[in-house]
Amino acid sequence: MNTDRLTALRAELVRQGLDGFVVPRADEHLGEYVPPSAERLSWLTGFTGSAGLAIVLADKAAVFTDGRYSLQLVAQTDATQWEQLHLTEQPPHAWVAAHTTPGAKIGYDPMLFAEEALGRYTEAGLTVQAVAHNPVDAIWTDRPAPPIGPALPHDLSYAGKTADEKRAEIAKILQEAKQDAAVVTDPASVAWLLNIRGGDVPFTPFALGFALIHADGGAELFMDPAKLPESTRAWLGNTVSVAPRDALAPALARLTGKTVRVDPAGSPIWFAQQLRVAGAKIVGGPDPCLLPKARKNPTEQQGMRNAHARDAVAVCRFLHWVAEQGTQATEMAAAERLLAFRQAVPLFRGESFPAISGAGEHGAIIHYRVTQETDRPIRPNEVYLIDSGGQYTDGTTDITRTVWTGPGPAPADIRARVTAVMKGHIAIASAVFPQGVGGAHIDGFARRALWAMGLDYDHGTGHGVGSYLSVHEGPVSISRLARPVAIAEGMVLSNEPGFYLPDGYGIRLENLLLVRDAAFPNARKPFLRFETLTLAPFDTQLLDATLLDFWEIDWLNAYHARVLAEISPHVPLETLAWLTLACRAIAR
Predict the structure, then answer these.
(1) Check whether domain 152-286 has CATH 3.40.350.10, yes or no
(2) pLDDT-above-90 percentage for the chain
(3) Residue 411 in 3-state DSSP?
């Protein structure tokens, strides 16, 4: 079927006068989670990962992804039709340059490419051409309709700031930069700015739309009117105008002579192209909502604590179930059981991403997603990895635990590697650092023990997390490739070092962290620290205590004591007995 689609696409490229076409895994908002109507990459290639890109030429085709999905890419795509390549090690623009002649016309959809991403192709000397009509859409005859779920108010008791306050905050940023307006294309920013949530994409409460925010605090929202009930229109107020999507181009045309901020990395290049035609002055800069949104206000911080405490009850019940019955279940059944436990938790609105339930070799697939075809039993005496999260009205969670299924003891080599990952986790969790430090500066803390063993992992150590928004939130991350943005008080970041042995097992230990003021009384400059939000025991069967320093054992024992104290009053009696044992102190 995918072969037929590739043949049809090549015929459409000939019809449009193109020598090739780039198919990113993106929608018009360039986000990680996209509606079914935007799953072009999956429809064309069979690859379902959340990061990737395909390039189709007349006689060659390739699919690219990063290290999280390398094994999945091989499993899901036909190697006789598609070269299976690594995004960073074999850059797409270099591949195109190597397989085309000078002047070849490579098409792209300007609503699916950021200016910064497209620049890599032009800098490689390639001739790129914007298409008026996406050729994939031309052959996708049964393409789903765009989502039209309602955009609903996000109550102030959870948001912590009114939309008026937020718009005034962004307006001040624009005024100080001497900019008249900013384009907002990230649905997370639109949701945060206007205090609305929706259900247009899986796992993330977005109502898809675009916005223009002006230096006077006024805003224009471009969204299908069918998505906005009267209650939401009243919630938005008179200073937010509402118009359908087809009013966007005329609105941009009215900005002639204005200075407009456009994010060159996060917004489709179509916006810059329209503004240039209109005669606006474009200033490249990050979405002005990104940093204020990432720095949670006190209400959002407390909401995250509350959500994690409730989520912990579900996770602990699940880990108890795995210990008692896991080897009688399959990966899919385990994921369904965890979802059932979460569905019993107040304010639960859905998973924050598809649960990664990987036993044995499947745990080595960093973003493994169990299907009916891949589902397998969880067997005795193997490593089982469960990475999951929940969306709650007051917060978003993301947690990974790696457990040993028993009944026999875990092999020494596995325990040594899990312990190295645990040391990295503790190093990040206990880090204290001066204000101004970025994620790239501390990423190595998590890898030091693994590097000493000649080991590493092919993903970042941490990502930002939204407040009842996306489980993956910028602009800060803990990674060697992190953008040079300082970690700031109020941000929530994941802490998830790992190790993966292909065809063997996967290890990942993840908690979420809230950035706090370290409150050193005599410090000459501000320092920051992390508060751990996630509350669930680690599997100490997989640790070799002789490889932990005394202070690391103290940290782990204190963490487990806190988990027991805070969660034990809320779990059933049978889970309490298990939790008490799981949180017992490790001897120094």
Answers:
(1) yes
(2) 94
(3) coil
